[in-house]
Amino acid sequence: MGAIRPFELTVPDDELVALADRLDHARWPEEEPVHDWSQGTKVAALKELVAYWRIEYDWRRCEARLNEIGQFMTEIDGLDIHFLHKRSSRQDAMPLVITHGWPGSVVEFLDVMDELAEPTDPEAMAFHVVAPSLPGYGFSQKPSATGWGVERIARAWSELMQRLGYTRWVAQGGDWGAAVTTAIGQLAPQGCKGIHLNMPIGRPRPEDLQSEDPHVLEAMRRLGFYREWDSGYSKQQSTRPQTIGYSLVDSPIGLAAWILEKIYYWTDNDGSPWDALSMDQVLDDIMLYWLPATGASAARLYWESFAKLGGDTVDIPAGVSAFPNEILPAPRAWVERTLTNLIYWNDLDAGGHFAAWEQPELFIGELRACFARMR
């Protein structure tokens, strides 16, 4: 059995100095000839973020927070996996593995881990929280060979929970985390009592094209927008991840622009990405791509698995929280084709793709409401 090794993050000062130098000597394109984000990340928005990054942003704050929660490494299937692990003091706490996606990271969960583990209300459900970094993301090792798709990650997460001594546990995820969590549900490993998704995977059938249900019509409209205007990143990363990887690893400006566009389009905001997330939150996430140089390795997960999403049904208990500004809203009828034992569904009034990051209190409430039914 692989050892669990403590991991303390201490980024050398010279790496931060080198980043500042790159920001100081950035070459900027001219402003876009449109007044909105329809051509991509606006120059003015990115310059505002970069100015804050260069002068006011404090990486050591984020670094200290990650170390405070508790960081660990363990080798699974030949790959070092980085994870946050916060054990609850409660004897009745439910072990939970929670998985991020792209362009997110484990920093999405920094504002929910304490309350999940040590509820302020002693009657509220508590969790032992395990938050791994996907292979090739954050401080997990970068795969040197092909084959690390969502099914292999699902098996690795099951091994991780077993290795931590958890014999009864649940799983949660959004974005790639939803794909991994769905794969865990499909595998139904011993000990996994159920799953929760904040981005359920559902696809229309030919008969859905004739539907007059407003939920179906809205889902079809959003699916059309995604295909026509919002999926360029996924096409690039699922076909030629290495090509875009050079820019993402070499240019902090290019990396920030690539990520900020999705923060703008995928959050529940009123016209500015900062309506949903702070600059510090966004930069914490960007730094987890910049410092370990994971722009290319993270993109390769699309090459591995983007065309293979879906597949078998999930027959163990499952729950869904549907946030209003999800990229691809899936009506319940679509989701039930995959999640055959759907025991929890709730439509939320606020929040977008990054549920835990944008709406931590709502997110915590959803996990408690769902997993209370799986005890």
Automatic annotation (TrEMBL):
Signal peptide: none annotated. Keywords: Aromatic hydrocarbons catabolism, Hydrolase. GO terms for molecular function: epoxide hydrolase activity. GO terms for biological process: epoxide metabolic process. SUPFAM superfamilies: alpha/beta-Hydrolases. It holds the Pfam family EHN. Residues 4-109 form the Epoxide hydrolase N-terminal domain. The active site is at 175 (nucleophile), 302 (proton donor), 353 (proton acceptor). Belongs to the peptidase S33 family. This is Epoxide hydrolase.
